[in-house]
Specification:
Structural class: mainly alpha
Number of strands: 0
Largest sheet: none
Order of helices and strands: HHHHHH
Shape: rod-shaped
Helix content: over 70%
Number of helices: 6
Number of domains: 2
Radius of gyration: 32 Å
């Protein structure tokens, strides 16, 4: 039988309650729980646990980057499509109207920037709104889709 040395330690009451609960569940003494925890802390396996935790965090970051990449692709395509349609549908202005158009454009741009600032301050983002709109369209098919499917109002 191995000899043991007594040691008095102080625990936070919440931590002690967790140790007691674990000891009851595993049907071992509190000393055995504390001894195993200290041995684990002092052993070399903590490096393995740290590596595993780091790997999980890196995996999570990788998934978040993939999501951001998809969001950026959607935004790029959205802006590209908007500009393409706007350029195709907006006729050029005559020379005499260009000065007033620039002034009106500056005024509209200022309004746009203020609106964008308010929207960003609320935290409601275009891609979240787009996702909600797409989901609601899938839940409630349009009149055209119902007629295509053979349904009548």
């Amino acid at each position: 039988m191995t000899s043991r040395t007594r040691m008095n330690v102080y625990f936070d009451p919440d931590l002690l309650a967790q140790v007691e609960a674990l000891a009851l569940r595993r049907q071992v003494s509190k000393s055995a729980i504390v001894e195993a925890a200290v041995a684990s802390f002092l052993s070399g396996d903590s490096a393995d646990r740290l590596e595993a935790a780091m790997s999980r965090r890196l995996d999570k970051l990788g998934r978040q980057i993939d999501t951001l990449d998809e969001d950026l692709a959607v935004l790029g395509e959205t802006v590209s499509l908007f500009v393409r349609i706007w350029l195709a549908s907006t006729p050029p202005l005559p020379e005499s109207a260009q000065a007033s158009a620039r002034a009106k454009g500056a005024e509209r741009f200022e309004g746009f920037m203020q609106s964008l600032g308010r929207r960003l301050a609320t935290g409601d983002r275009f891609l979240k709104e787009l996702s909600r709109d797409v989901d609601s369209l899938q839940d409630n098919p349009s009149q055209d889709q119902r007629e295509t499917d053979g349904e009548h109002p």
